[in-house]
Amino acid sequence: MKQTCLGLALVFTLSGTTGCSVVMASKQPSKKNTEMIQRGLSRNLVIAEFGAPITSEYKNGKRHEIYTFTQGYSTASKVGRAFWHGAADVATVGLWELLGTPAESVFNGKKMSYELIFDENDQLERYTYLTQDETK
């Protein structure tokens, strides 16, 4: 009797945690189109893709802006990961969540920053990919 109660308690506990990695995988940030960053690109298109800049200032008649965003994953990748987590949850009766949830916390996209310089017509003149030294 004691083992049955313990088994039921374990099943209820695990059933409360199942699905977290599935939800986390499906809610990962979407992939941004960084290949669109080309000379002559309209500022409005940049804002539409990356959102509002974190800084914007004028220097010598040109607009200097920094855009920071999380580079996420394609829809196919997110669906595949969610499906995998769901299948692993079913196959392991929820034990997969002990690995899947922390994994989704780690693989949640890469932070990216660009400095974009626009001319007086708000057309992209030049850009720089900004990186942080990850060895520190």
Automatic annotation (TrEMBL):
This is Beta-barrel assembly machine subunit BamE. It comes from the Bacteria.
